[in-house]
Each structure stands twice: as structure tokens, then as C-alpha cells.
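User: For a benchmark we're assembling, each entry needs the component sequences followed by a predicted structure for the full assembly. Here are entry 17's components. Please fill in the structure.
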Amino acid sequence: MPHRWISFRRVVAAGCQSFVRNAWLSIAAMAVMTITLTIVLFSVIANATFNKTVADIRDHIDISVYLVDNITPEQRTELTNKIKDIDNVRLVTYTSKDDALKSYRNQNQTNVTLQLAISEINNPLPASLHIKLYNPDKINDIKTFLDKPENKALQSEPTSYSGDQKVAIDKITKATTFIRRAGIVGVIVFAIISMLIIFNTIQMAIFNRREELNIMRLLGATKWYIRGPFIVESILYGIVSALISVAVCNGVFAVSSTTLNANSLGLLDIGYANSYFADHFWVILGVQIALGVLIGAVSSLIATQRYLRFKGTSAA
Amino acid sequence: MILLDRVTKAYGPKSSPALERISLHIEPKEFVIIVGSSGAGKSTLLKLLTREEKPSSGKIIVGGIDYEHLKDKQIPMLRRKIGVVFQDFKLLPNRTVFENVAFALEIIGVSTREIKHTVPRVLDIVGLKGKEDRMPKELSGGERQRVAIARAIVRQPKILIADEPTGNLDPKHAWDVIRVLEKINHYGTTVLLTTHNQEIVNKLKRRVVTIEGGHIVSDKANAGYR
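Assistant: Structure for entry 17:
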């Protein structure tokens, strides 16, 4: 309908105009929105980076089973297959005595004494199976299996998860689980707080202009004609704030990668955070804009509703 | 044009009614002045006509619309048929003079071309030619009130309600506003004016309805102030 189209165009135009003319109010609202959206964005990236670090650490956790020298290839294959059949096992790789020697030599290239201590003829390094798990927290099934006497007989040394290493693995596992949970909770808490702050800011902005709403109402404007421009204005806040927050984030990464010269700050791998941001740039931009638009629209919708109840509808 | 039949309005069950069994009949093209002290019930009467308030009892018919059967959704349509001028102008602060007047036409879906044609003519009638691009805060009180009048009449309403339009103005500007109202009435619009200004009432020599304590105490044609 042409009438509706004219109204729609006028509502959008009025919203844009109001956005420009209320510059100071707009800047205040957008400042709050930008800060909160930026915090949310940073916490999302920090969380992703922590998760990556955690995943890296957990990926390095494996179980080494050292085999006796006189094990037959059949026995080895059978043991490997049995281990593979255990639910939690992701990957089993075999390292022969020769491979172990090569890797030992590689690791000690500069140390001649250590190199000379071992030769092909007198190779004390055992062959081994390296087991990677889906969930490093659950090693009981594997432990029970490896501790069976018939399996124990095939092993030359205690399995490497035992003793101090086991304690270290447990500690890392606990810490990483905690960090991951804390990260998710942090992101959610930040998101909720920012929504409340933005909501409040827009409510205040509209509260300051409730008289305008009232005037329009008295002139016979319909509900949507009145609230439309406010919603358009709030959506503009959301879009601009999202753009600024992504730009700020972009700037921070650009500066940090050139000036810090360090790839990691403890558990925060800046290089990864940077590449995560770059890889997900369009998704991040889209989600931030969607978030800004959504919060802006919902806040202004609720805030205007309060001042648009037609008086006189409740008869005394 | 306007008919009130035994209308009572009470704001709460315990408070005494602001208006009690008021009956009033106003013909088309009449110029009626409503006088009365503050709290007498003048504003309540006008709010009932613009449907900002609902009567507790009684019948109101304006321009053929019976308020009893009026749905909430139809209120905007009703308000578009009545022009209203307020004591405090009620201009949109962030819009220019032109835009304030144009707004009244925009909400009823008038084309942009027609708005560009009509608004300057109405601004000419109220004597604001050349001030189209000013913001309300750049105008004097009298000029602001004339913007409000232009906005009220641009839709050519059958009824114009002016609620103490001169209350905030000095005598010279007050008379400018009254002259504009007379001009509009002359063109055929029913005008309902409330005022405290004795001089205006006495000089206008129009029908005067006096309200005191929620009752109509006098209703005289060609009358003066009490």
C-alpha cells in the first residue's frame, strides 16, 4: 500500500534525523553501548583463546606404554587392537626402537656425550605405544586394561601416566575444566550486564523525550508512527556501536601484535586470539551488529510502550 | 457539532467530581469562550473532548462521533479531526517550524508534494512566512503559539480547541493569537477557547460559558467576563 510505504519512509527518515539532531544523547548512549559490546567481544575472544590453550594442553596428554624388547609383531598387533577397542581411545601410534633412537638423536643433536652413550647395536630405548584419548580425564578403563597381568607382562617399564606425571595431568585437567567453565560463565554474565546497561541507557534517553511522545499522541499519530523513529534511532545506536567495538578490537590486535612482540601472555595466546579474530571477522561483525540491533530495538520497544498507553482507556 | 449530555467526570471514587451533569450544545461555526477559575473543570471538559479522559457517565458526541462506541484504535482518527492548541504550545523541540506543521499532515499520509504546497500557505495565514527553518527554541512565545495554531489548522479540522492559548503570552502577542483564531473561525471552523483573560473575553463579544465547581453557572451569547 502506498500509504504504508510513505509512513515507513517517513518513520525511517525521522529516526535518522533524530539520531543526528540528538547528537549528544546519541553519543552518550553509543558510548555505553560500545564499551559493553567491546567487553563482550573481548570476553568471547579471550574465552576462545583459553579454550584453544586448554585443547592444546589436553592434546599433549597421552599415555606411553613401553614394550618389552622380545615382543613379537603378532603380540604387538593384538595389544594395539585391544587398546583401540577401548571406548575412550582416539589414536594409537607405534614407535619402534629405531624410531625412538632417531628421535632421541634429534633431540640431543648438540650433546655428543649423550649421543655416544647410545648406538644402534646397544639401543636401550624401548619400543612404545602412544595412546591419545578423547577425554583425558577418563583413564580408568585404560589403566585397568594395562594393569591386567597378561598385558603387564608385555611392558618393560611402568606406563607414563603413573606417578608424578599422573598428578600433573590431573592438575592440568582440573585447571582447564575450571577455566573453560569460568570463561563461559564470564561471557554470559558480561552479556547480561551489558544488555541491562544498554537497556537502561535507551530507557533514559526515551524518558527524557516522553513529552515528544505525548505530543505526537495528542496530534493523532498512531502507536507505530510514534515509536517507529525511536526504534530506528536505537537500531542506529546498535549498528554504530557494533562497528566501533569491532574497530576498537581490530585496533587493539594491530597494536598488540606489533608492539608486544610476544606470542603469548601466560595462558592467553595473543597470536591465536589475533588469528581467531581475523578468521571469524565477518561472523563477529555480523553477530555484534545483530546483538546491537536486537538490544536497541527491544529496549526502545519496551521503553516506548510505557509512554504510549492511551489514557482514558480505563474508565473511572 | 459538539454535544454533551449530562456528563459527569470523577477522577476517583472518593474525590468530588471535576464535572457534574454538564450539558452543552455547540453549533457548527460557533466561537465559544469557556471561562472559570483554575480547577473549575475547564481542562477536564477539553480532555473529555479530545478523549484524553473518559467520562464517568453521560453522552458525548463530537462531529457525529459518539464517544461511547469509540474503540481505542479509533482514538488517533478522532484526534486528527480536532485541532488542539495548548497553553504550553507542545511543539516538537527537535523539528523546525516547517516540520512541526508538516508532522500533522505526515501522520495522515499526505504526499510530500502536497505538504510542500500546503504548509507554507498555512504559515502565511498565521504570519510566520520566512521562519520555516527556525527551531522552536529560536522563536518568541507568540510565534511558537502561532506555529501550534498552524499545526492545528493545517488539516482543516471542523473543530479547533484552544486551551488557554494566550496564558503564556504578553498582551500584544496574545491579541495576535486571538486574531488568528477569529480568522480561522471566519473561514468556518468551530472554535472552543478557554481563557482567564478578561480583556479578551470582553472585547470579543462571543458566546461565553462559565464553569464553576464542575457546573455550568452561566451560558450567554455576546457576553462579557462574568
